[in-house]
Design brief:
By secondary structure, the protein is α+β, with helices and mostly antiparallel strands. It has helices at residues 2-5, 9-19, and strands spanning 37-40, 47-50, 60-62.
Length: 65
């Protein structure tokens, strides 16, 4: 961080824009490396994140309540 703070303001902004670009609210599948989709369980109606490659990839992440 100290090295970044030594850069001119325009270069700091460019680095910050690059580092924070993209969608950080949607998790990425740790197996496939693609964004997951929010799904609803048929069993109990709870929501969870599931891989877009289902059924080939069955990776899921429980959603916080």
């Amino acid at each position: 961080m100290d090295l970044i703070k030594k850069l001119p303001d325009d270069k700091q902004k460019r680095l910050l824009d690059f580092a924070t670009s993209g969608d950080y609210t949607t998790p990425t599948c740790t197996r496939c490396g693609i964004k997951m989709v929010l799904r609803k369980s048929r069993r109990d109606g709870s929501t969870f994140w599931g891989c877009r490659n289902y059924p080939k990839c069955r990776m899921t992440i429980n959603q916080r309540r």
